Amino acid sequence: MMKVSSIGKKISLLVATLVMSALVLVPGVRSAHAAEINEPIITSASVASTPLYSVAGATVKLTMDFQLPNNIIHEGDTSTLTLPSGFTFAWTMDFNVEDNSGNVVARGHANTTNRTLVLTYTNYPETHSDIRGSIEAAMRREDETSNDYGMKTLTINDGNHTVNVNGQVDYRQWTGDNPNERLAKWTTIDPVNKQIIYHVRVNAHGDNLSNVVLEDTLSTPDARYAGPTPSGDEMISIQRGTFARDAVGNFYITNELASNSPEITAARASIAVNAQRNHFTINLGNLGTDGVVLTYAVVFGHEPVQSEAINNDVKITYGTPGQEESYHSRVMWQTVSGRANGYNYTIGIKKTDKNGNALKGAEFTVTRDRSGEVVGTVTTDDNGEATINGLLRDDYTITETKAPEGYTVAAPVKINGAQFDRSSLSAYVNVEDEKVPTSPVPPTEVSTKPKKKQQLSNTGSDVTALITGVAITASIALAVLVTRKKLA
């Protein structure tokens, strides 16, 4: 195996360090670590005015309108909403917050244990601006047997901020079932499995009833009874016995017959369901003073939406001649759900000269200031216009990179988020170019001064001076020589 020298290791470490530093410094590159959004998102909250009773399954609707801050939310970031002590969400469940086209803005999770609703964002906030929406949630008392009755004012913790809820919860004591009840119906909503569980109670009062036939009809389109077989096997749970009342006043069954008893077996065999599975009858026979509870599930061919009305009618006939009682059930589908919509914006560029004439062929780059990302390159058409779509409402720089022939490049132009019109979802800018200046040819200068005569060099004089100098020098030298000889 090749050994890596210590110098090689140091070089590798240095390269890795430089790469990581570059990732930190490059605009638009973000750590994958998700963050909790500190800015509040709830703009208003309200609670329905319907009473909330101290009985299991009782809920009241909470509505929260929200707006997401622009340009700071990234995929994986979260917002946490918390209910006050004493109240919680009706179910622990997951749900999606979607826009009108079915795109997921955030994935929600409601938790009954810690009273929280957490939104985990997709990349939708990174590609849309001005996202507004609403969340509706069924809410209940944390302790459904609490005797702290009265009007309750609520607040919601939105991250580190407190939101006051409009309206009050009218929390009332449940006073029990009707003691003279002969026919009653109630529901349990199961939003996780997208079904409603119906409970029908017959003869809780304990009258002496004979020839009892029950007929049930689902009047909501696309609703049908759940169950594996058209004959109704396993579709309906049947309990039979006598009823008593607890301390609160609720009926409960005692002396219950076995599920394979002749009475229950005969009743199950009599179930008749139509082909559409939205109507059935069951012959309960001679009940005497016994009562019966039927339980069955209803599913839908569509996904129910928040506050959708689900209608059901049940009727019993009994005695000779047949007497009749009926009960209409209207249930509002309750769950935790959300809707939101965000928007994309457009920048329009108009290119003209100083006189307002359209200029074709100008090229521009559009850069998002926040990240340094070039979000588009466009060229003006015959009308001098160009557009770039799919933008966030943010600050941008428009830079002309190529001017039309014969024109100079204009200075960069800035557009800030406030300039985008929220109705047209656009911002427009006009960019003017100036023509390239032409350099003038300087005129030829004609001098009116007389020309000077060209002065020739005086060559003869110079030669004469040179000869004279040489002669003088020679004479001096000769005189010196003669003098030296005389002295000798």
From TrEMBL:
One of its GO terms (biological process) is cell adhesion. It holds the Pfam family SpaA. Residues 59-141 form the SDR-like Ig domain. It is a peptidoglycan-anchor. It comes from the Bacteria. Residues 347-411 form the SpaA-like prealbumin fold domain. Keywords: Cell wall, Membrane, Peptidoglycan-anchor, Secreted, Signal, Transmembrane, Transmembrane helix. The chain crosses the membrane at residues 463-482. Residues 433-459 are annotated as: Disordered. It is found in: Secreted, Cell wall. This is Isopeptide-forming domain-containing fimbrial protein. It comes from Alloscardovia theropitheci.
